[in-house]
From TrEMBL:
<feature type="domain" description="DUF1618">
    <location>
        <begin position="143"/>
        <end position="198"/>
    </location>
</feature>
<dbReference type="InterPro" id="IPR011676">
    <property type="entry name" value="DUF1618"/>
</dbReference>
<protein>
    <recommendedName>
        <fullName>DUF1618 domain-containing protein</fullName>
    </recommendedName>
</protein>
<dbReference type="Pfam" id="PF07762">
    <property type="entry name" value="DUF1618"/>
</dbReference>
């Protein structure tokens, strides 16, 4: 199977490489972070398997390049985080999640239970896009393109157990069902979220025969 690009941020690329028989695909499902350029030249880092052998989809996981500190230690200058948000299957109430976080400094995965704050209301959040925001709090955004954004500060996972919710504009025109990525998209550009929506217009097509013209 060809390598799959799951996420990008600045000069980092999160890849999935599967080298395994179909009947044992979990063991051969590896995550890599590729850095094409920078201090020390290109690098390819193999991440350890997430606990429980969980497999993340591209709409669940993102990579965040963290700013370099004023340190002479080469390892201190280049570190990153990989974060994935999954529904908490053990919770009865909605709005409960598990944040899986890989911190390259520690080279380990952690799993932290998170909940949505009370300032926004989302009936059922379904990730469709993950956007790296960055900043001092190392913020990452888990986006439901139909409903809204869940913001998580990765540098304060324990101190801030709640995910901040920001709603997106309602669909323009009649409701559209199906995959939101076919008509909506979002990006973080120059400190702001840029949101776009494609509005579909259907043209009536009529058959033409010898007796009638539409």
């Amino acid at each position: 199977m060809e390598p799959q690009v799951l996420a990008t941020d600045e000069n980092l690329v999160l890849l999935r490489v599967v080298v395994s028989p179909e009947k044992n695909i979990i063991k051969g499902n590896d995550l890599y972070v590729y850095k094409p350029a920078g201090d020390g030249g290109p690098s390819l880092t193999l991440l350890p398997q997430p606990p429980g052998g969980i497999i993340f989809c591209s709409y669940q996981v993102g990579v965040l390049s963290c700013p370099a500190n004023n340190s002479r230690d080469e390892k201190e200058k280049s570190f990153f985080m990989v974060a994935a948000l999954c529904h908490d299957e053990s919770a009865i109430a909605r709005g409960r999640f598990v944040l899986h976080l890989y911190y390259s400094k520690h080279q380990t995965w952690t799993a932290t239970k998170k909940c949505q704050d009370d300032q926004g209301y989302c009936l059922l959040h379904q990730n469709t896009r993950v956007v790296a925001v960055g900043g001092e709090d190392a913020t990452i955004a888990f986006v439901d393109l139909w409903q809204g954004i869940l913001l998580c500060d990765l540098s304060q996972v324990e101190a801030k157990p709640c995910l901040r919710y920001a709603p997106l504009p309602p669909p323009a025109g009649p409701p559209i069902l199906g995959d939101a990525r076919l008509s909506r998209d979002i990006a973080f550009v120059e400190g702001r979220f840029k949101y776009v929506q494609q509005q579909l217009h259907w043209l009536q097509v009529c058959s033409v025969d010898q007796t009638s013209v539409c």
